[in-house]
């Protein structure tokens, strides 16, 4: 099979080179489209179910909400652990799945099971809320809204975060949530005065009922007038504080009692559970959380573009200050590893030019480095592997291995060209490549077999090391394809037969051989008997001598000359 592949490549050399270059181009584009992050995604599917009932205590919520929820969720597939905590008015159930479980399928299963249990919850219990736990690696951006002294108050800053920034950033693809902290959350508050309430003989239930019914719209059907049909509806939604004050609570002795008569209706901040602060004072902090599996760099770039648009619409004296950008961390981490790969590749190129001695052969082998990495991009994208420090680490490991097959093929072709200078270069190159095709194929498979067990790892360990193994295997597979197709075809075109009087070894190798020869000659002269020499450096020939004498050392010198 290997010989047939090489023969087919030599039959259409131009087509072979064109296909390889086009595939490398697609591979380079695929590399740019891979998801980028510092580390592989190590987060396991973990979900929070939050249930609220203001009238129930911790013990009641535990018995009537938390335990039924735990029982219902425990039977889901791949559930690893369930835990709950309850306090006054709130119960939280946390469901943790196995790391290899599918995120979206697990979320769907939890949502379906919650819907079944929701009908059995006590009266007055709010509908369960389902949210995902996010770690620091999911929070890709953090920024603060700050105002100059006297420009706007903290409530206005929070309004900007709630109604403008939050809605604008949620429209960015890949953004899961925008967490806000600090400032004052604006509310329409009805501060009932017990004295005025008692003086007008109005109960608190009447106030609650009036407020609930006042803030709704109602449909009145339609009225037909000739060929026109008019829709009738009652608009009752509250838009201002004054609308709320004028709400009729009750009618006492034919006199309507307005909400403003028994309570103070004001705009006031909600009770704060946290504060965001800098050295200059209080600010409003926003954290952007990406969706599960989203590309950190792409999402961060889109969010920064949206923030630039928001900056142009902010009130005078309000500034948006970036505090944390995870894409900078990703770029720094990936850039450091990429530089290490480039340095390693540069050292490999230097060694090639120094030891091969033939600049054409060295240039051909060097050219396989970027082509192998580019072709690996196709395989990585097909496997759903992103770019991270583990992936680049695998490529760094593979850099020194990528040129092995190409060196063997090129060296053998150069050797045969020197032995048969008058023969056709195409025939010599094909014969020399086929001679070493099977050995390099099996040698590459042996190296690949070392990394195959990493694909069988599960859990967090599997997620961590699988990208490294995929990068090494993809790069080696690409280098093997190039060694069997492009390298021999290009060698037949580029390489020339050395001069008959040219040395087969480069200057450095000749000096090393001469130095070893001197050491062997000196040791053989000084040793009288009983010595055994193993010249394993000159593989595959191993020469052994027993009872070395002076005349035998001379023949040894002749052999190595």
Note down, in words, how this protein is organized.
With 561 residues, the protein is of the alpha+beta class. Strands 5, 6, 13, 14 and 15 form a 5-stranded antiparallel beta sheet that branches. 54% of the residues lie in helices and 18% in strands. It contains 18 helices and 15 strands. The model is unreliable at 528-561 (pLDDT under 50). The relative contact order is 0.12. It has 4 domains: 2-30 and 357-494, Multidrug efflux transporter AcrB transmembrane fold; 44-133, Alpha-Beta Plaits (2-Layer Sandwich); 186-269, Multidrug efflux transporter AcrB TolC docking domain, DN and DC subdomains (2-Layer Sandwich), CATH 3.30.2090.10; 507-560, no CATH class. The protein has helices at 2-11, 13-33, 58-73, 103-118, 154-170, 194-199, 204-214, 241-245, 259-262, 296-311, 326-356, 359-382, 389-419, 425-451, 459-484, 486-494, 507-526, 550-560; strands at residues 46-52, 79-87, 90-97, 129-132, 139-147, 175-181, 186-192, 218-225, 228-234, 248-252, 255-258, 263-269, 276-278, 281-290, 318-325.
């Amino acid at each position: 099979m290997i010989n047939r592949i090489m023969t087919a490549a030599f039959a259409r050399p131009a087509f072979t080179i064109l296909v390889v270059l086009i595939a490398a181009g697609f591979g380079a584009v695929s590399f740019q489209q891979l998801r980028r992050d510092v580390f592989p995604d190590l987060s396991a599917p973990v979900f929070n179910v939050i249930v609220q009932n203001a009238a129930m205590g911790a013990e009641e919520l535990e018995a009537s909400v938390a335990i039924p929820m735990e029982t219902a969720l425990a039977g889901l597939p791949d559930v690893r652990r369930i835990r709950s905590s309850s306090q006054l008015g709130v119960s939280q159930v946390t469901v943790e799945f196995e790391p290899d479980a599918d995120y979206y399928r697990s979320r769907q299963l939890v949502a379906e099971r919650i819907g079944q249990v929701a009908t059995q919850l006590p009266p007055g219990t709010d509908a369960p809320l389902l949210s995902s736990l996010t770690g620091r690696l999911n929070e890709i951006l953090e920024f603060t809204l700050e105002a100059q002294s006297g420009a706007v108050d903290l409530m206005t800053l929070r309004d900007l975060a709630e109604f403008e920034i939050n809605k604008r950033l949620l429209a960015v693809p890949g953004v899961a949530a925008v967490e806000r902290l600090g400032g004052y959350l604006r509310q329409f508050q009805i501060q009932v005065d017990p004295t005025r309430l008692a003086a007008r003989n109005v109960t608190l239930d009447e106030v609650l009922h009036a407020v609930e019914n006042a803030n709704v719209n109602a449909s009145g059907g339609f009225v037909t007038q000739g060929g026109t049909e008019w829709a009738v509806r009652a608009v009752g939604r509250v838009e201002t504080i004054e609308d709320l004050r004028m709400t009729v609570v009750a009618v006492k002795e034919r006199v309507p009692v307005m909400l403003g008569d028994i309570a103070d209706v004001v705009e006031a901040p909600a009770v704060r559970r946290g504060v965001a602060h800098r050295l200059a004072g209080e600010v409003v902090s926003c954290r952007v959380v990406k969706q599960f599996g989203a590309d950190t760099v792409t999402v961060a770039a889109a969010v920064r573009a949206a923030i630039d648009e928001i900056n142009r619409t902010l009130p005078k004296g309000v500034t948006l200050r970036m505090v944390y950008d995870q894409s900078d961390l990703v770029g720094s981490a990936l850039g450091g590893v990429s530089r290490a790969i480039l340095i390693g590749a540069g050292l490999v190129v230097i060694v090639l030019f120094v030891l091969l001695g033939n600049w054409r052969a060295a240039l051909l082998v060097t050219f396989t480095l970027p082509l192998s990495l580019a072709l690996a991009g196709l395989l990585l994208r097909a496997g759903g592997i992103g770019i991270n420090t583990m992936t680049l680490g695998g490529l760094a490991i593979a850099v020194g291995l990528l040129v092995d097959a190409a060196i063997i093929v090129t060296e053998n072709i150069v050797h045969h060209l020197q032995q048969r200078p008058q023969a056709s270069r195409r025939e010599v190159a094909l014969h020399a490549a086929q001679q070493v095709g099977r050995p390099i194929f099996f040698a590459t498979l042996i190296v690949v077999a070392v990394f195959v067990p990493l694909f069988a790892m599960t859990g967090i360990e599997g997620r961590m090391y699988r990208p490294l193994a995929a990068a090494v295997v993809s790069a080696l597979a690409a280098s093997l394809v190039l060694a069997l197709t492009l390298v021999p075809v290009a060698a037949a075109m580029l390489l020339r037969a050395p001069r008959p009087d040219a040395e087969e070894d480069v200057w450095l190798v000749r000096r090393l051989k001469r130095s070893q020869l001197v050491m062997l000659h000196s040791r053989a002269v000084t040793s009288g008997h009983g010595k055994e020499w193993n010249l394993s450096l000159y593989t595959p020939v191993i020469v052994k001598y027993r009872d070395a004498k002076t005349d035998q050392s001379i023949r040894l010198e002749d052999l190595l000359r």
